[in-house]
Description:
The chain has 218 residues and is an alpha/beta fold. It has 2 domains: 1-103, Formyl transferase, N-terminal domain (Rossmann fold); 111-137 and 145-218, Formyl transferase, N-terminal domain (Rossmann fold). The protein contains 6 helices and 11 strands. The chain has helices at residues 15-25, 44-51, 67-79, 97-102, 123-129, 165-188; strands spanning 4-10, 31-38, 56-58, 85-88, 107-111, 134-141, 151-158, 192-195, 198-201, 204-205, 210-212. Strand 1, helix 1 and strand 2 form a beta-alpha-beta unit.
Amino acid sequence: xxxxxxxxxxxxxxxxxxxxxxxxxxxxxxxxxxxxxxxxxxxxxxxxxxxxxxxxxxxxxxxxxxxxxxxxxxxxxxxxxxxxxxxxxxxxxxxxxxxxxxxxxxxxxxxxxxxxxxxxxxxxxxxxxxxxxxxxxxxxxxxxxxxxxxxxxxxxxxxxxxxxxxxxxxxxxxxxxxxxxxxxxxxxxxxxxxxxxxxxxxxxxxxxxxxxxxxxxx
Length: 218
């Protein structure tokens, strides 16, 4: 089948980006990663993308007179690669409403919590502070309101008695690297769509997110 052209936006290590690129390079994911773009020139994920043969680009907000100018250039930069899907993989800037509208229905994000719990930052710390027994990750379509788009798939992990932020984050990241390629695969094969603010999979509207379970999780 024809590979779906995508662009991935990152700000840091690019762990989820690597999971997507590695599966694509292995022939298990029908996507063509046209570029990895970062808002940080020192993002470690840029070198990891280059090592995997992916084009990279940076766009720094400090080079623009205001946020609107930055967002407009980002949208144009992404458009230059003609993606059918834009994937946020640890991209830490909030996208403008104009950008989100331009790519509506073609914009996915992964968030390290079981949304709608814990939108925003420090999700692992908040889960531990609240004594949660389970935590996890969510893939969702992006809408104008932060971390509130319709959820495609979630994965849960148990919170262990001796967990720290770092140990919990590591297990959550493990399931992130499973559910993000799954969601992107569904989209690439024409099985996944956002219509009227809801998720549709295989022609049926999801009344709740798809779920993934990590059998080896302790």
